[in-house]
């Protein structure tokens, strides 16, 4: 009986621990260094019009506002591969990051302050 209670306690602990898992926010300078120094999936979760007005080079567009499309595209991503994401100012990307973590993505990094903060830091923007 003690073994069963012990096992249940361990499972409960790890279950709660995973439920508390969060994404990480980083400033633009750190974000740029990390997306340039390692293999990551870089996501822009803004609308197509916002993306076409300027985005971070190498970013894939998956629009958070189009829930079905976002979930379909995110479902094709590798959950063990680092995912870096951003939006305009941080609201949508925080929601998207939280959703990705809940779906089992292991490493989710959000650009703090979004692309507006990126621009303020003087970092490069690409347009089609």
Query: What's the overall geometry?
Result: globular
CATH class categorisation: Alpha Beta
Order of helices and strands: HEHEHEHEHEH
Q: What structural class should be given to the helix and strand makeup?
A: alpha/beta
Low-pLDDT residue spans: 4-18
CATH hierarchy: architecture: 3-Layer(aba) Sandwich
Mean pLDDT, nearest integer? Answer: 89
What fold name goes in the CATH topology slot? Oxidized Rhodanese, domain 1
Total number of domains:
1
Radius of gyration: 17 Å
Gap from first CA to last CA: 64 Å
The fraction of residues in strands falls at 5-15%
Please describe the biggest sheet, giving its number of strands, its sense, and whether it closes into a barrel: 5 strands, parallel
Task: State the CATH superfamily name.
Answer: Rhodanese-like domain
User: Residue share in helices?
Assistant: 40-55%
Overall number of strands? 5
Strand order of the largest sheet: 1-5-4-2-3
Helix count, DSSP H or I runs of 4 or more residues: 6
């Amino acid at each position: 009986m003690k073994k069963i209670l012990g096992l249940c306690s361990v499972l409960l602990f790890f279950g709660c621990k995973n439920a508390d898992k969060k994404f990480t926010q980083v400033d633009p300078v750190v974000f740029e260094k990390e997306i340039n120094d390692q293999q990551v999936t870089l996501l822009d979760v803004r609308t197509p019009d916002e993306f076409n007005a300027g985005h971070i080079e190498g970013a894939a567009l998956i629009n958070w506002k189009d829930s079905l499309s976002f979930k379909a595209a995110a479902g094709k991503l590798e959950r063990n591969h680092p995912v870096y994401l951003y939006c305009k100012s941080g609201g949508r990307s925080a929601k998207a990051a939280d959703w990705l973590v809940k779906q089992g993505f292991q490493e989710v990094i959000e650009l703090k302050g979004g692309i507006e903060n990126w621009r303020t830091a003087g970092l490069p923007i690409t347009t089609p």
